[in-house]
Amino acid sequence: MSVWHHVRAVVLLPFTVTVVVPGIVLWRTGVEVSAWPLAVAGAALISLGLALLAWTLALFARIGRGTLSPWDPTTRLVVAGPYRHVRNPMISGVLAVLLGESSVFASLPLLLWFAAVLAVNAVYFPLVEEPGLRRRFGAEYDRYRANVPRWIPRFRPWN
User: Fold this and answer.
1) Quick check: helix, strand or coil at residue 48?
2) Angle at CA of residue 7, ends 54 and 141, nearest 5°
3) 97 with 46: CB under 8 angstroms?
4) Contact criterion met (CB below 8 Å) for 84 and 159
5) CA distance linking residue 53 with residue 51, whole number of Å
6) Angstrom distance (rounded) from CA 86 to CA 154
7) What digits encode the pLDDT tens for the residues 36-95?
8) Domain residue spans in the chain?
9) Nearest-5° angle of CA 122, CA 53, CA 24?
10) pLDDT tens, 88-121?
11) Helix, strand, or coil here: 71?
12) What is the CA radius of gyration of the chain?
């Protein structure tokens, strides 16, 4: 899988959701940095989210041999790193970035964008993503799904 495939997937998906749309929202509604405690908490969430995104993207490339996009999906099930604790750490990273941005800018419209992304993914994963993973990976995915929660991380990693 070429670097271009990964760059295209990141630009079209998480970059658009976490940078382009929030940038447009802030441009339309005005930018105002919140009080320092909220801004620091938001910056910490953004940093955590970006680190989680980078980690999961690297795992998709190295272990999954694919990208996060539906048009270049992984060819192997990724059950390493944060995927041993929760089935959707990439979306958790995106949501952390969005929540952090809404905190840094004390922006209700960004908080609403966070809620919309959460709602769309809460519907998309069980209706589209998970059935597709089941078709592609069969019993291996069923065993993983039975042991690793979708959203709330398990404390001890699954082996």
Assistant:
1) helix
2) 60
3) yes
4) yes
5) 5
6) 7
7) 899 999 999 999 999 999 899 889 888 988 777 777 778 899 999 999 999 999 999 999
8) 3-147
9) 75
10) 999 999 999 999 999 999 999 999 999 999 999 9
11) coil
12) 16
